[in-house]
Amino acid sequence: MILNDFKSLQILGNKAVPLLITQKPKIEMKLQNVIFLLILLKSCVFFGQVVDRPLRIVIDPGHGGMDSGAQGEHGILEKDLVLDIAKKLIAGQKEFDGKPAEYFLTRYTDTLISLGDRTKLARTLQADLFISLHFNDASDKKATGVEVYAYNQENPYLKQSIWLGHLLEKRLVTLTSQKGRGVKFANFQVLRELKNVCPAVLVELGFIKDIR
After folding, report:
1. Fewest 10 Å CB contacts: which of 53, 102, 173, 185?
2. Within a 10 A sphere around the Cβ of 193, how many other Cβ atoms?
3. Tens digit of pLDDT for each residue in 87-98?
């Protein structure tokens, strides 16, 4: 589920745009702190082995193009929100825990990329870590909080993915003051197709209705 770019937000009117612009930087700064702090904490487990190439970290902004994902107030779209966050997460990043690292996005524009192509990119790159970013949605207006998903069947990276999920959830709860909804298990395609490639999680960063 997702949001549109600042360009698309210009059509919302003078009142809505300042509201979104003042809120988004606060959220993005916290999410950036969460993910890179988590990666640093996790580095001894994921990357304890010596590699003869830069570490490869793939960030997947969910949805895109025709698939807008969830829609919040004032026309906020999940696809745009997660793309904007993902771009800020990788901006200027060339190292990981003191080691050379390469950061990749599965999409850099408002384009619909198939789930198969997203996981194909991670496999082609021989990714060391895959994090898919989303915002949640629910008909229950009282629903709130952060949750993380790992693949629901045994695989070589299941324990690492679960631990990664717990760390992400705890950091997000601490830094954004949201409710923790736990680490859950699902047969999502992006997780299933990477079960033998690298630790992979799908993160619901919060509920789209809570983004003002």
Report:
1. 53
2. 19
3. 988 888 887 667
CA distances from 141 to 72, 138, 145, 184, 205 (A): 12, 7, 12, 21, 17
**Single pTM value for the model:** 0.79
Q: What's the pLDDT tens digit per position in 113-137?
A: 999 999 999 999 999 989 999 999 9
The three-state DSSP-derived secondary structure of the chain is CCECCHHHHHHHCCCHHHHHHHHHHHHHHHHHHHHHHHHHHHHHHHCCCCCCCCEEEEEEECCECCECCCECHHHCEHHHHHHHHHHHHHCCCCEECCEEEEEEECCCCCCCCCHHHHHHHHHHHCCCEEEEEEEECCCCCCCCCEEEEEECCCCCCHHHHHHHHHHHHHHHHHHHCCCEEEEEEECCHHHHCCCCCCCEEEEEEEEHHHCC
The two structure tokens encoding residue 210: 């809570």
How far apart are alpha carbons 89 and 57 in whole angstroms?
Answer: 11
Q: Which domains does the chain have, with CATH numbers?
A: 6-210 (3.40.630.40)
Nearest to 165 by CA among 181, 177, 179: 181
Only one residue has tokens 């080691």, namely 99
Cα separation of 21 and 33, whole Å?
A: 19
Q: Is the Cβ–Cβ distance between 135 and 28 less than 8 Å?
A: no
